[in-house]
Amino acid sequence: MELTWHGHSTWYVTVGETTLLIDPFFDNPKTDLEPADVDTPEYVLLTHGHADHIAHAGEFSDATLVATPELTAYCQEEFGFEDAVGGMGMNLGGTVECGDAYVTMVRADHTNGIMTENDASGGMPAGFVVSDTKPTQVSDEESTAFYHAGDTSLMSEMREVVGPYLEPDAAAVPIGDHFTMGPWQAAVAVDWLDVDHAFPQHYDTFPPIEQDPEDFAREVKATGSDTEVHALEADEPFELEP
Predict the structure, then answer these.
(1) Using 50, 70 and 90 to split pLDDT, how confident is the model at 242?
(2) 0.90 cut: is pTM over it?
(3) What pLDDT sits at residue 196?
(4) In the 3-class helix/strand/coil scheme, how is 220-239 assigned residue by residue?
(5) Which are the contacts of 238, defined by CB distance < 8 A and separation ≥ 6?
(6) I want to staple 187 with a disulfide (CB 3.0 to 4.6 A). Which of 4, 52, 114, 219 is the partner?
(7) CB under 8 Å to 111, separation ≥6 — which residues?
(8) Distance between CA 48 and CA 38 in Å, rounded?
(9) For residues 74 and 218, what is the distance between their CA atoms, to the nearest angstrom?
(10) Where are the domains positioned within the chain?
(11) Would you identify the CATH topology of the domain 2-235?
């Protein structure tokens, strides 16, 4: 599995021959790319409807959309998406097959209003676990899974469900504080998830969320976790092995 961070919460994920783009937002200071510079993915995954997560979704409307039914309907009307998983999107707890990948939608503790004239609802905010095998109760040491936490606060579901049952090998967690978890809560989340690799995201984009990722790395170490923290350079691929 190949993971490429494009700044903020935007990730390009390749599983086998399948490509997925999560939360496309390229107006951030970490990336030099424009949406036109990015290979069109087969799937676009949206965690929620805030502008800094869907701003450039319309640039990839030829892809199949993976989002809640409410956000799917909005994006179909606003951006011209024709295809969506299941024809209507998906919802929390569901797993859908996306080419060579399996995508499980999990909870995120956040808000999800779409600030338009009519203040549309995006349904529930979410995170995604993207894996190369279908999740079951039987642990599979050969599988590889990546958890994109979306915009969220610390929540016990990470410890009780996502970590032990979906078994991600790596997690991208927000560290910006103010709107999401800050470094110390994100570090607790990483400890609960028991992942091998952790990536800070959703930081340094706007003044309220300016953070030093080294603070996050120190907080992870302070939990006693042996998770390896990677403050990635944007647009550089990371190879995730099982």
Answers:
(1) confident
(2) yes
(3) 98
(4) HHHCCCCCEECCCCCCCEEE
(5) 2, 3, 4, 5, 199, 230, 232
(6) 219
(7) 48, 50, 125
(8) 21
(9) 40
(10) 2-235
(11) Metallo-beta-lactamase; Chain A (3.60.15)
